[in-house]
Amino acid sequence: MRDRSTSSKPLHGFFHRAFLNEKLDNWVGFLFVTIIATVFAFLLANNFLLGLGVFAVVAGICVLVTCLLNPLAGLYLTMLYGFSASAISRFLLKDQLPVGVVTDILVFTTFAGLFFSNKNLKKNTADFFASRPVVWYTIIVVYLTFELFNPLGHSVGGWSQVMRKVFESFVIVFIAYNVLDTIAKIKGFVAGLFTLTFITGLYGCFQQWHGLLPTEIGWVNADQLRYGLIAIWGEYRKFSLLGGPTEFGIIMAASSVFFMLIGLNEKKLVNKIVYLGGSFIMILGMSYSGTRTANAMLAGGIVFFLLLTMNKKSSKIFAIVAALTFLFVLYAPIYGSATLNRFRSTFSATEDASYNVREINRQRVQPFIWSHPFGSGLSTTGEMGFKYNPGNPNAGFPTDSSYLNKALESGWIGIILTLILYFFMLQYTLRGYFMAKSRYFKMMFAACAAFFFCFFLGEVAQEAVGVFTNMVIYFPIFGLVLRLRQFCNESLMPSSTN
Q1: Which terminus, N or C, of the chain has the lesser number of Cβ atoms within 10 Å?
Q2: Closest Cα to residue 174, out of 459, 483, 486?
Q3: What is the residue range of 193's domain?
């Protein structure tokens, strides 16, 4: 018997089959692409700007449809956009691209796509919120929501700017947890992330070896503050495809540790060479960024991993090689390299004037922190404070450290909640490492734990976690860890991963 709903609504049934079930892998898709190509060819030949504008609109619609129909592809597109948005804005749009708005659209369209997928959202959501890190993350979201009523922070706009990022990050974790639901997809995600970070690191090396392109030099010189941050010691700090050298250095440091540890534990020689070679390129790119926080992150991540796996012979050998390399870089009689000199300055902080200024600033605001358990409200420090809360006592204060920023804006209650979250994230990952019987799972848990530790260390001196591009790698890996722990708990460890 024919389905009455289908027979009564033949057009609805046709679109449901062609778009949702077959996902345009049929004659409709072929016809659709042919028509679009013909229209674009005509417009570009007769009116280039109009053709380019129409192309951008249609491409955007196609991207949104893809995110709706395939949330895994939506996650990849969000990550790709995160790594390329700043470069697109610099080279094509005169630095006018509304990066955050496009991110919001991609993330929430992908989230909506989960409801069109065949995934068991009810079970996945229950399992997701049953994990301790997610419980604490939820508590922080609720706590920050109530910061709207902080009497010192009177700007709803400033509060919404922070909450948008917080909520968006939470959604990214949820998306990653739902779409990375098989070992094959996890391996594909790792390979995709490696490709993005490798290309980003390689372009940073290109900037160092070739020099910045004229468009990039113009972008640096267009803003006096930006120029002061990038042009240091007679050289331009390299920023690759990203929004700045600090962001570039932090991502390269954490990613190089992550993939280095995967490479060290790979059995296949080809994979080992690819991951270790790619990690070397990322470390080079990180060094060219001139980001001292990234240098400390790299060293701390390697030490953390070695402490975790010191019982292995390969880890002991790597520890000796890493220690000798570090001592050579630190004390070799080579003084003409600005990159090398800036790296060395990371580990002689007491001799650095900027470090001493930061320490004085931290001591100056400690009485305020102790006397204000809920802080001064969101978006009340630094430039955001001047913009949204100009009368706030902390407006314009240069926090630098993300921990100090949280202590001032959300109070000592907020920073305690954040530290508990970070503790549970590490504990959750490390427990997975010791629970896992699969060699692949152990490798992934160890790499993820070192990755998280890099970011937590970076938070001491910079905002390492909340920056947009960092979000699109940090939070998906958070979701990946949650999924790996579920595999361990359910003993879903295929023999192919051993």
Answers
A1: N
A2: 483
A3: 123-497
